[in-house]
Each structure stands twice: as structure tokens, then as C-alpha cells.
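FAQ

Q: What does a record look like?
A: Structure on top, sequence underneath. For example:
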């Protein structure tokens, strides 16, 4: 029975968030166009032993300082910290986020020799970066910083941090899709971002109560989230690297950082340092990464940073490894990804996917490019990788070297929760099921998979809008296709070993991709709190919210619908030029951050509640 009270429905959805996706949808993050906030407590883990490459190391710490323009004051502030790090294992791994540097500054080479890295922070430090209706300016300050750092002799930056990401909503899905995942005018690009924050909560049963409840009886880390500015740039209970929009490693930064501590308790606060130590402890329990964002002296002293180092070394010894962002990128590539980075040499998709293929709660890896086809499955019991072949390319490369998604779609199609892989393009067609070690071809894998004409997952290098999602919550995915020519939903019959077309489609006019294979503005979101995916569709022409009823009736309850005009109740997800508008869905709200909301709306975001959508519809 469907809930009729929107408020009760959403409360129920929050209380049962772990059930909302279920095992059947654990691979849908691979299909997200751009969502930096999809991870959480129920997302498969990527623990440090999976990528660190050093026996006995269980957690990592990254010390990253922001805003350097002149090296001299940073050398003075960092020197005691670097000397303390060198006393541990002879290196001084730390990362400096720099808006502008002199590429010929001799201090840079001295730092590099010690293990320090210098990373990108925009040329001009705009807060927020996307603001004042000027997208070109935002991209130029990002691109210019990367191109400047690349002129440092024998050096290439790998990481980025968005200015003011700890104090305002400066992050946006638009940034990932339209800035980070592109290349600069000189063809440069980065591999890693550290601009989304992470908060530990009492919802994690693996953490002892004292880790998440402070000595005053408060939730230890929530008190740092600045509610007065509707700060939403964070994820919960996920202290691990994760992939955003296919090409970006996100290294979430710990809450609190020094500014969040200053905002709550003033500069150099002992309470903040105490809680930073507790965050290190929680990170070690989770076998994750503690990324500290800090600044030179204004809000935290260098002796307090050394106090954090001393705490980690005294309590955990060799179980904790201090790293720079350069170190992390290299170790992820070498030890997790078998030498294949997320981005190819031209910055495009390198055919690497990180997901939990066997359903054990740990991330695995699939690689399918012109250099390597490999499946890598992690054994948490043995602490080793099991390596086998991968059956199909995940990217296609044309004669000019341009790369595109080959249309491989992952989902759960059989009882037991193992992944399946479906692809049909001009050169490859098939369905494979993972058995825990290998991908087994299904000889009848495409039987019945037609909607007037055969379904292609990719055609001419274009996405054809095929997705695998568990619509009815039984742990098995249905297949949805939504493009300009085909609208259909199929279920997989294990007994008949064939696809069966169901009596439903996506709502009329709503497609997953447009005729050019671009994001058309459709998102699957549980709007009414019944733990089933509703459809939100919004682009430059129209908007719709259609609520899901059942496999028989589909998304037949059209709640909000209309042509785009000034003041439309649902902001655009995709713009008229096909670019991402910066929308995401989190905690019962739709948020939008872009150059039109930055410095124009309170807290730089447009946000609408799901209950507000339902209220407007009535």
C-alpha cells in the first residue's frame, strides 16, 4: 500500500535508507552522469589494504594545506611538520594546494625531493568558483592553474581542491561533468579531487560509541556542520576513495577541518584537535583514509598538526601510512587498477570500472581497454586480489584516438547477487554472468531483447539509454531503455532464459539520453518515500515528476508536469546545450549549484524539498 502522507513517507524513507536501493541496485553508480554524493554507509568499501601495496598498513593519512601563493611562509609553517614526518620513515609526504606559484621557485624542487606535492587550487581562488553567470571565467581559472603547475620542470599535478569547499556550497555536479572531466586548452588534466567532506555518524554500527559521541554527550562530528549556511557538501560514513562521473577519484576530506573547527570553537581550539584525533581513530577502525584540510596558522597551529601525527604514530605505529595526493594516485593506479589509471593519456575514459561485482561489500575492478582486459576481485579474508580475464572492451577507440563508452551495463540479473554484464554495439553483443571468479557467457543472453528493432546499449559511440535497475525491490534488475526512438522495460526470466517485455515504459516524453547520446535530464529518485524509484525529468523544454506504482502500472502517477518557463517548480537537470546544470538529490531535497546560483542565491544553491514538490502538485 502506498503512503499518502508525504511527510510520513519521507521519514520512513530516511529510517529505511539502507533498504532503498538494496543489493539489486548496488551497481547503478556506474551509470550516473555526475553525482559526487552517492556514497554512504551501505556503499561497498574500498579499504586501504586494497590499494596501499604495503603489508601491515591498514589506514592512510593525507595532510593537505590550502591557498599557497608564496612558498616562503609555507616553508616556515610546514618545516616542523615535515621534519616530524621525516622522522617516521625518512620522507615528508604532504600536499600543498596552490592558486599560483613561480614554476622556477627552487623551493618546489626541494619539497618534491622530500615527498611533498603541489596541487591545483584555481588561479584566483573564487568563492564559489561557479558564480555570477560566468562559466567561462570559472573554467579559465581552473584550467589556468593546472597549466601553470604543469610548467614546473619535471612535474605534473594530479589533484584539485575547490576554494572554500569547507565553508560554502561551492561544489557542483556541473563542475565534474563540464570542468574536471574535460582537458585544459593545453591538453592537461587531473586525476583526483578532494573537495567533498565526510562526516562519521552514530549510524555506523562498526564504530564504538565514544568514537562518534563526544565527552559532552553530543554527536562528535555533526556539531561542525555549519547549519546556518545550509552546508550540504559532505557525505556520511564513507572514509574511502570513490569514483565520480567515471574519471575522477574523490578523496573525501575529514570533518572537522581547521576552518570548521574555527567556525564552531574559535581558532586553535583544543576541542577541534581532540575531535580530529577521534576522526583518525574512526578512520583506522574503518581501514580508510583521513584527509586533513588545513591552512597556515590562522585556524590551526603547526604544533597542533604535529600533535595529530604523534597521536597516529603512538597509537597505531606502522598500521598508518602518511601519503601525499601524488602517492595516493600512484598507489591506486599500481595496486588497485593494475597500472591502468581512470583517465587515458588524452584525458578520456580508459575503460576502468570500480564496483562490487560479487556482492561481498568490497569494491572490485574491471578493466577493458586496448591494453588490458582484467577482472580483479578482492578477498577480504586473504587480503589479496584474484585476477581473471574480462570478456569485452569497456571503451572503443576510433582511428583518431578518440575514446567512447562501449555501452557495457552492469546489474544483478540472477539470484545470489552476483553481477551480470550486458553489451550490444556494432562489434560486440552478449550477456555475461559473474560466478565469483569469471564471467560466463549466456548463449541466450539477448533473446527477446527488442523494442521494434534490436536494442543497442551503444551505437556509433553514443549511449542508447539502456539501464539495469531493480524497480520492484526483489533484488533482480529490470532493463529500461529510453532514447528518442525506443521506450520499453524488460524483465529477465531465469526459467525461460529470455527477456520479457513488460507493459510499461518511462513516462511519455521522458528519455534517459537524447538523440546524440547525451544526458537528457532523467533521474531515478524516491520522491514519495515508498522505497521505489520515481522519475524526475527536467531539461530546457519541460519537467516531470512521475511516481512509480508497480511493474504493471509503471510511473503512471504524473505528479508535476509542464513546459519550461520562468519560475518552473523543478530546476533543470540538463541545459539546452546538453550540459549538466549542477543538480543532485540528497536528504529529501533537490539541490542545484552552478554559475547562476553562485553569489546570487542564499548559500549559493537552489534547493527544493520533495515534500514541496508534492505540495505544489496538490
Amino acid at each position: 500500500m502506498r503512503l499518502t502522507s508525504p511527510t510520513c513517507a519521507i521519514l520512513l524513507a530516511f529510517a529505511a535508507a539502507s533498504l532503498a536501493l538494496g543489493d539489486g541496485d548496488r551497481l547503478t553508480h556506474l551509470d550516473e552522469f555526475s553525482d559526487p554524493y552517492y556514497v554512504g554507509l551501505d556503499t561497498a568499501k574500498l579499504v586501504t589494504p586494497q590499494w596501499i601495496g604495503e603489508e601491515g598498513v591498514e589506514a592512510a593519512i593525507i595532510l593537505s594545506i590550502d591557498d599557497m601563493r608564496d612558498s616562503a611562509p609555507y616553508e616556515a609553517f610546514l618545516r616542523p611538520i615535515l621534519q616530524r614526518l621525516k622522522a617516521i620513515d625518512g620522507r615528508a609526504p604532504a600536499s600543498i594546494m596552490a592558486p599560483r606559484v613561480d614554476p622556477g621557485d627552487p623551493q618546489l624542487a626541494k619539497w618534491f625531493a622530500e615527498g611533498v606535492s603541489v596541487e591545483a587550487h584555481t588561479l584566483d581562488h573564487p568563492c564559489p568558483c561557479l558564480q555570477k553567470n560566468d562559466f567561462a571565467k570559472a573554467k579559465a581559472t581552473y584550467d589556468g592553474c593546472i597549466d601553470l603547475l604543469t610548467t614546473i620542470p619535471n612535474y605534473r599535478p594530479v589533484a584539485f581542491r575547490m576554494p572554500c569547499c569547507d565553508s560554502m556550497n561551492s561544489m557542483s555536479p556541473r563542475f565534474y561533468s563540464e570542468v574536471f572531466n574535460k582537458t585544459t586548452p593545453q591538453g592537461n588534466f587531473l586525476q583526483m579531487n578532494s573537495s567533498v567532506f565526510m562526516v562519521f555518524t552514530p549510524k555506523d554500527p562498526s564504530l564504538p560509541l565514544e568514537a562518534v559521541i563526544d565527552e559532552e554527550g553530543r554527536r562528535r562530528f555533526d556539531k561542525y556542520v555549519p547549519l546556518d549556511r545550509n552546508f550540504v557538501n559532505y557525505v556520511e560514513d564513507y572514509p574511502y576513495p570513490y569514483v565520480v562521473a567515471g574519471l575522477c577519484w574523490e578523496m573525501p576530506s575529514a570533518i572537522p577541518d581547521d576552518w570548521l573547527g574555527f567556525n564552531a570553537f574559535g581558532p586553535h581550539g583544543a576541542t577541534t584537535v581532540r575531535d580530529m584525533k577521534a576522526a583518525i581513530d574512526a578512520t583506522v577502525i574503518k581501514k580508510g583514509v583521513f584527509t586533513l584540510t588545513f591552512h597556515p596558522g590562522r585556524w590551526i597551529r603547526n604544533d597542533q598538526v604535529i600533535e595529530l601525527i604523534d597521536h597516529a604514530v603512538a597509537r597505531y605505529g606502522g598500521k598508518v601510512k602518511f601519503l601525499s595526493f601524488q602517492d595516493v594516485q600512484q598507489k591506486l593506479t599500481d595496486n588497485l587498477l593494475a597500472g591502468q589509471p581512470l583517465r587515458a593519456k588524452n584525458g578520456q575514459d580508459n575503460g576502468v570500472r570500480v564496483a562490487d561485482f560479487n556482492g561481498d561489500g568490497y569494491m572490485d575492478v574491471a578493466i577493458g581497454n586496448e591494453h588490458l582486459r582484467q577482472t580483479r576481485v578482492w578477498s577480504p579474508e586473504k587480503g589479496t586480489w584474484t585476477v581473471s580475464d574480462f570478456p569485452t572492451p569497456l571503451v572503443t577507440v576510433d582511428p583518431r584516438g578518440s575514446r567512447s563508452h562501449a555501452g557495457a551495463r552492469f546489474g544483478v540479473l540472477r539470484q545470489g547477487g552476483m553481477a551480470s554484464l550486458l553489451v550490444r554495439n556494432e562489434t560486440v553483443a552478449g550477456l555475461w554472468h559473474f560466478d565469483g571468479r569469471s564471467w560466463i557467457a549466456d548463449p541466450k543472453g539477448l533473446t527477446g531483447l527488442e523494442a521494434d528493432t534490436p536494442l543497442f546499449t551503444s551505437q556509433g559511440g553514443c549511449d542508447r539509454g539502456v539501464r539495469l535497475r531493480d524497480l520492484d525491490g526483489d533484488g533482480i534488475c529490470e532493463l529500461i531503455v529510453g532514447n528518442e526512438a525506443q521506450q520499453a522495460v524488460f524483465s529477465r526470466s531465469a526459467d525461460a532464459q529470455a527477456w520479457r517485455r513488460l507493459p510499461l515504459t518511462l513516462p511519455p516524453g521522458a528519455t534517459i539520453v537524447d538523440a546524440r547520446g547525451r544526458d537528457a535530464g532523467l533521474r531515478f529518485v524516491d520522491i514519495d518515500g515508498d522505497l521505489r524509484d520515481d522519475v524526475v525529468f527536467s531539461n530546457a523544454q519541460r519537467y516531470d515528476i512521475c511516481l512509480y506504482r508497480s511493474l504493471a502500472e509503471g510511473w503512471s502517477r504524473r505528479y508535476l508536469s509542464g513546459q519550461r518557463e520562468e519560475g518552473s517548480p523543478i530546476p533543470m537537470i540538463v541545459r539546452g546545450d546538453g550540459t549538466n546544470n549542477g543538480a543532485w538529490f540528497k536528504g529529501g531535497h533537490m539541490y542545484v549549484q552552478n554559475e547562476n546560483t553562485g553569489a546570487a542565491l542564499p548559500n549559493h544553491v537552489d534547493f527544493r524539498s520533495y515534500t514541496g514538490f508534492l505540495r505544489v502538485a496538490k
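Q: Is there anything notable about this one?
A: The radius of gyration is 24 Å.
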